[in-house]
Amino acid sequence: MSLVVRNLSVDHGAIRAINNLSFIVEKRRLTAVIGANGAGKSTLLRTLSGLIPASEGKASWGEHNLLKGKAELHVRNGVSHVSEGKSVIPELTVEENLDLGALWRKNKKEADATKKYVLELFPRLGERLKQRGDTLSGGERQMLAIGRALMSKPQLLLLDEPSLGLAPLVVEQIFQTIRDIANTSDLTVLLVEQNAMGALKIADIGVVLNLGNIVAIGPSADLIADPAIRAAYLGY
Amino acid sequence: MEKLISASLIGLSQGAIFALMALALVLVFRSTRVVNFAQAGQAMVSTYIGWEVVTRTDNYWIALPAAALAGALLAAIIETFLMRPLAKRASHGAIAPVASIIASLGVLGVLHSGAAMIWTTEQKLFQSPVSVNGIEIGSTVYPFSQADMLIISTVIIVMLIFAFFFQRTSLGLSLRAAAFQPEISRLAGVRVDRVRTIGWALSGAAGAIVGVLVTPGSYLSPFSLDILLVYGFVAAVIGGLESPQGAALGGLILGMSLSFTSIYVSSGLTFIVPFVVLLLILIVKPKGIFGGGNSRNA
């Protein structure tokens, strides 16, 4: 299984948000897509999870064509997407938010096992199961969003800016958790981040996007070492 | 004392009806953002179905679920074949915020004239399964009948079933989630389109039950339930338009204000009261008692 994106283009009306993008993410790799605001990072994830249509090209996860069918069906094929901005439902309790991710799963025993795993991963959520989503701190909300995505037992996890709006210490925690999840499971992770340094540090592979085009791609250690990338994207 | 008891009991019975009608409107509004003027027409057509059943079988207890089923089906059809394509096609430009409202008015018109064609505009008597005469205790006759008791108990049971369904079942959770955050729900695997149709169907059933509860003892015509739309909206707005609990409370507040005004002040004021209550709420607390931002109820 691998994520294969070939010649993918996506338009927002007259504006080309993603231009002829091609890359492959191998199974169990953690890949970070970095780039400035408007580089097309969120658009890429939203296209892969079926929220918006592509204009041209191909994208597949294993044998599943990601450009066909609705988002609610993609998740059944092993693709979970945590959208930008702590994607939890504030009106629902923590437990309801988690359960939501597994409602479609037929095997309730397996779903319960996943829930146990998620609560071991995020014990703070376990202490707050009956609280409403909007009573959580920013970091806890992000954990809940990731937890909800894991409840669908994904093979491919798409994460959109998990560090957004979080305090530096919390950002570090979230990144570490993402790395831990990738290390201890079969998950393939595609992480989109404006916090380029933080993301590249935990990633195996880095993809640098600029205005919808790939500028650089390679092992993230190489990208961090590249003076041009450092100057343009890592800020030193 | 008798006055007080009468006013409270009538208020309770009327309030129950308004509450259920408000719930029907809230279920549609919070899941699809449609202010559904057709609700009165849907309830009316469903009540005619109930009337057909009751005249054939002479059994109200078959007519009630039959009407509810018809109401659910009719609502699901309207959502699937009109509102859903409309939301997709008329999603941009000046028409977007009003398209569904105008469409719902259109549906109301179609249902009015359709019912008039099928059943004529002649008023039909809907037999009540219980007495509609005031209950006599000692020498006083209270303006409160067995039919009122039937209304109150049925509405309470229906509300409890809805509450259980929404709070305790998986499908109920999907409905709430899809109402609040359709995109996140989609990403979590909720089939949002399907769930919305179910929301409309539940609303249609609630409206149908209103019609079949309120009509017995009086007459049914294509326009006889239209006034409930007004009361239902006022009750829904009092409750914040999005909250089922708010709808219940809004209905009760409206029912009580109407009955107390008509018994203590003048029955001539009953047409003004709902609008006064509505204006007060809109000016003092425009988001309603349960409405607004973070305080909205799941």
TrEMBL record, chain A:
Membrane among the record's keywords?
no
Q: Which residues form a coiled coil?
A: none
Q: Give all residue intervals belonging to the ABC transporter domain.
A: 3-236
Stored CDD domains: ABC_TM1139_LivF_branched (cd03224)
Q: Kindly list the biological process annotations in GO that this record carries.
A: L-amino acid transport
Q: Which Pfam families match?
A: ABC_tran (PF00005)
UniProt KW keywords: Amino-acid transport, ATP-binding, Nucleotide-binding, Transport
Q: Name one GO molecular function term.
A: ATP binding
State the similarity comment: Belongs to the ABC transporter superfamily.
Name of the featured protein: Unannotated protein
Q: Which organism is it from?
A: freshwater metagenome
UniProtKB/TrEMBL annotation, chain B:
GO biological process assignments:
amino acid transport
Q: How does it sit in the membrane?
A: Multi-pass membrane protein
Q: Where are the transmembrane segments?
A: 7-29, 60-82, 94-119, 149-166, 195-214, 271-290
Q: Name one GO cellular component term.
A: plasma membrane
- Molecular function (GO) terms listed? transmembrane transporter activity
Spell out the subcellular localization from the entry: Cell membrane
Keyword field: Amino-acid transport, Cell membrane, Membrane, Transmembrane, Transmembrane helix, Transport
Q: Does the keyword Transport apply?
A: yes
Read off the InterPro entries from this record. Answer: ABC_transp_permease, BCAA_transport_permease
Q: Which PANTHER family match?
A: ABC TRANSPORTER PERMEASE PROTEIN, BRANCHED-CHAIN AMINO ACID TRANSPORT SYSTEM PERMEASE PROTEIN LIVH
The family annotation for this protein states:
Belongs to the binding-protein-dependent transport system permease family. LivHM subfamily.
Q: What is this protein called?
A: Unannotated protein
Which species does the entry assign this protein to?
freshwater metagenome
